[in-house]
Amino acid sequence: MRFRKLNYFITVAEELHFGRAAARLHIAQPPLSQQIKAIEDEIGAVLFERSSQKVSLTPAGEALLPQARALLQDWEKIQEQVRSIANGTSGNLSLGFVWAAGTPHFSKGIAQFKQDNHGVTLNLEEMTTTHALDALRTKKIDLAMIFLNPLMDITDLEHQDYETQKHLLALPENHPLAQKESVPLSDLHQLPFISFVRQAHPSLYDQIMHHLHAAGVEPNIVQIARLTQTTRTLVAAGVGVALVPESTQFDRREGLTYRPIDGVLPELDIHFVWRKNGLTPLMERLIAHLQEQVPR
């Protein structure tokens, strides 16, 4: 039975008059009578007692009326939910992002998106580039914000740029190089060095090492840190220095300072990445909110 037929039945049941019901439905009375007869034939029960004086519901009609109203209301809710998902105003969205994306303007973009989209459940998870790409391909997340460069093979995915950051040198406040306004790349030669795990961002790691070696710098890696928080802690403790994205400076820590670097290092290009042909209106809304907050 179609929902339109249910609406015909409900309208006649409320008016108890075929003429008034037809006018309310903006159709002629004979087609309405035919539709009600078709409903009765389909159900196998008479729903209305008809006479020249009045129209009344049969016991079967009285039993159907509340169920018909509930079904129609549920169908209207389903249609609204589907429309809102298609329009990007409700639904679930999971975003995996590298730690460097966690800037104040990222936070503002997320806050504004949540304020403007109360019907959306947004799941956020910090990930490495490798983890995020794997999660995308296995459909564990919908959208990723990762380090991207031309050496990476993502032909099975689509992407859009978000922002570009430079590297800074993180070092203890009492380190001799902290006295300089900027640190020449050559000054990093043989310094105790804290590095991130290559498997987390392999292409970026290889690019950094290539540029260091090209500048005659052989880093003395004394510690591998899996988390950015660990890197900052170790630098503040005097274990070594580290190359970090410039967004790291927004998270201040006692005993730790940052300096620009004089020399050539790879830029950190952060991109939105999603599965091919998988960009939804909801994802577009989130991307737009985040891009609006990026300083230009």
Task: Supply database-style keywords.
296 residues, alpha/beta, Arc Repressor Mutant, subunit A, D-Maltodextrin-Binding Protein, domain 2, 3 domains, 5-stranded mixed sheet, 41% helix, 24% strand, rod-shaped, WH-like_DNA-bd_sf, Transcriptional regulator, LysR family
How many independent structural domains?
3
Mean pLDDT across all amino acids: 91
Multimer state: single chain
User: What does the radius of gyration come to?
Assistant: 32 Å
Structural class: alpha/beta
Per DSSP E runs of 2 or more residues, the count of β-strands stands at: 13
CATH architecture of the largest domain: 3-Layer(aba) Sandwich
Give the name of the CATH superfamily of the largest domain: Periplasmic binding protein-like II
Global geometry: rod-shaped
CATH classification, class level of the largest domain = Alpha Beta
> Stretches where pLDDT falls below 50 for ≥5 residues?
none
> Main beta sheet, described?
5 strands, mixed
Percentage of residues assigned to helices: 40-55%
Outline:
This protein is 41% helix and 24% strand. It is of the alpha/beta class and 296 residues long. It has 3 domains: 3-86, Orthogonal Bundle (Arc Repressor Mutant, subunit A); 91-144 and 151-158 and 273-292, Periplasmic binding protein-like II (D-Maltodextrin-Binding Protein, domain 2, 3-Layer(aba) Sandwich); 167-266, Periplasmic binding protein-like II (D-Maltodextrin-Binding Protein, domain 2), CATH 3.40.190.10.
